[in-house]
């Protein structure tokens, strides 16, 4: 399980750290408070496991290290593509050159970066060019490299994983380099899933479907059960997957009731589509993740497209799926109803208070600020009318009141 994160120059965060992560973590804050940046940093740090060699010239010799490039996540996405596609508007960021096929020479655009030029020995691995904008490494095995990148590494413990990124659009004010570190046991890249609003328009990769259809018993039946609970569908129905015309590598989900024609999930509202496309990979993760290869769900704005009642049902089903599973969850939100549902689930013990933490976040002139709110204090805070979405005093046009469930 990831325990904490320390960040320097990643996206809008010039510096900051968050401690005390638990199994179930909720980031609450206003727009531009650093929530998404932290989620993306965790995601990228969790999906590096493709080993390559790092060669760099020192004053006396050539130094070598084993580092890791990003690999595919649960749905087969290239994680760097997924994150950079949300933020990049640069036309030419390929700031490296190839020396034959096995070696890539990297020159970092950030003139202040302590690691300015180095060479990646790809060996037999054939990563895509889009994977060559960051690498990760275990600090315990690469202490000299850790000292070099962090310079002051007092807070970087031996069990950390450090990431060095030279993709300018993902760095603070386009500096050109960023470094961050996570502590604890990282998840398996193949069981890591980043769910944001873009998932609504996505389709299921056919390779993902074919593989897990044979690996997860009752997969489609489980999806149907959870989907029916969320939207309170009483009539029996099944879930099917059908090829998409013009997209031979993708499938679309369909809902088939016994007494009505089947409908594609696109025929439903965005709320149903968002829930369905969360459930498909999450049910797989819950079945496949192990203590040795744990899972990770990064869920951005669960409230998107959902009315309050459906949001509560959706959150309840997600908790049921991950309960007692080796899966860590990070949620980012600026929705107070979601926080209130969390408080209620702690009251009813549907959520374990020892495994849950809420973080109030703020970003001021590049400095990440956080206040952790223990579950024992969350209910009291909401009952007194505290609006955790805002760092400073704010008077909303109406007041929420937490009610007993």
Automatic annotation (TrEMBL):
This is AAA family ATPase. SUPFAM superfamilies: P-loop containing nucleoside triphosphate hydrolases. Residues 251-340 form the ATPase AAA-type core domain. InterPro entries: AAA_GajA/Old/RecF-like, ATPase_AAA_core, Bact_Antivir_Def_Nuclease, P-loop_NTPase. It comes from Spirulina subsalsa FACHB-351. Residues 1-124 form the Endonuclease GajA/Old nuclease/RecF-like AAA domain. Pfam families: AAA_15, AAA_21. Transmembrane segments: none annotated.
